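Hi P.,

Sorry for the delay on this. The queue was packed all week, but I finally got your sequence through. Input first:
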Amino acid sequence: MSQTIKDLSKGLPIEPIPELKTRNDRVSHAPIRYADLTHEEKQLAVRNALRYFPQKYHSILAKEFAQELDQFGHIYMYRFIPDFEIKAYPINEYPAKCVEGAAIMLMIMNNLDERVAQFPHELITYGGNGQVFSNWAQFWITMKYLSNMETDQTLVVNSGHPLGLYPSFSWSPRLVISNGMVVPNYSKREDYDRFFALGVSMYGQMTAGSYCYIGPQGIVHGTTITIINAGRKYLQTNDLRGTVFLTSGLGGMSGAQAKAAVIAGCVGVIAEVCEDALLKRQAQGWLNEIISDLDTLIKTIRLAKSNKIATSIGYLGNIVDVWERLVKEYEKTNEILVELGSDQTSCHNPFNGGYYPVDLTVEEAQTMMKNDNKKFKQFCQQSLIRQINAINRLSQSGLYFWDYGNAFLLEAYRAGADVGAVNTAFGIQFRYSSYVQHIMGDIFSLGFGPFRWICSSGDPQDLDTTDNIALNVLKELSERDGLPKHIKDHYFDNIKWISEAKQHNLVVGSQARILYSDQIGRVSIGLAFNEAIKNKIIKSPIILSRDHHDVSGADSPYRETSNIYDGSAFTADMAITTVIGNSGRGATWVALHNGGGVGFGEAINCGFGLILDGSQESHNKVLNILSWDVLNGVSRRSWSGNQLAKETIKDIMQNNSKLCVTIANEVADDIISDL
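Then the structure:
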């Protein structure tokens, strides 16, 4: 009997047990994981996996799971991949007892949609290893719990494992998630590889494991804003026509770079070693052309620069070859063919498929990765050194390069590349700044960050309605008297974004939208949505969320908190208090993660989801949650010495008598220098 979405309420499909499934070429698959387990540890991993199944199936599944572990480095349980199409169905189609359960089911299904997920059969949404669950048994059991959950219960999920449903209050979160949280001394990359292979921990990236991913649209917006602001900061212009932005990666979140470059108005050149990823982005209409020959690429770049064409060019090959060829062109012609540069390969996971070294084919790299991981690591590090050497040469002559928060510079530094590393009282500083540090940092200090919503009806008309509501709110806020220019600029950027969003065909998966907004903008938009639902202008509930990469969402010293200079960049109190505060204020679900973008042990980040149903309770939650979720980070940044954050929080305090934040007193330099 074929499965349907209604079968999600039944849990594990074991009566009868499904036919054996294996990897196929219909979808892209995760690289084989390197798992250096002892024989005893391999037995433990299989034992851990079998716990989900009645004993009568153990003899069938034990050898199968052991073979998966040996062949792929992890037990995914391919046999239990659902037979029905996984996608964000309208909320009323889920077999759920409460709207919160149905909404979370919708979000999980979107994260695993084959159009959305990077490696759907390995339950990876983006980033090469951003898991939704560790295995398919966890998916089925979680869906059953969500289906049966009532409004006085809370589901607890630990690194993909559904621990159970517990009695709670109607205003409590319906779901609490923890991903990859370990005792701090055991948070090294090697520890994670072992924990994941054993099936006891999971890397949720950011919005993969918190079920809040909305497809690559989110990073399209973030990358667009980054490129625009890089133009303002480095090139002193708002007009990027004829400007070349060179980067790499089109697989998961990095797939947004091509679209973002065109929206920003520049020439985007993106190298990618996987042809499937290039073809996927071209089929979406996000990548204009694909080139596999370096000579042709150089000619195409020159033509696009000359004609000032906004376009995206995908190069099938290794990014190191492109950087080195551009150096040769410069030395031959004294012509800089690239003004802006970055990198979005998954360098948080460089030796397990996140970074492919130059001079190896994809197949050669994957074989070496599995059979001789130490040698593969050496190849990756040599490649990183070559890449940095080329970037350094061009940056001396007019290139502006930044780290995109993917641990690229950190891994290059660890490889021994010349990244100009300097040890300071507040951490290692590199020659090239993080995009947060120099480009986006001031945005977070002002409270602006990635605010997003999902129309649970699945109806594009509802999305159009919400776009118009958000647009009107932003226009009204941008017209306030006395608004500083730097804040007006951010409003205008997002007014332009939301005005053009539909024509850019950004929706992949759920009917969702993102924009950057500050505290008053988020609250105002949320209240307007709730009122529209109450008045039946919007057909069904709206799900509010954000990227973990936000004002208060991530303690990450090489990314979100890279511009914290009081020595606290390596502390993680902000993300933890943010998630506790959102939970206490009644968010529909909350999540706390180890890692996210920069790698296991390199950051702590958090997220949340909030259902709006038109009720007074939703109204009150918008006021409390969306304010706290921004103000905690602005307060922390203010205390660290950021002047814009201090001005922002003091201004908000003047309009809210219930808000009282500790403000740092200024310390004169000469007082300290005389010590």
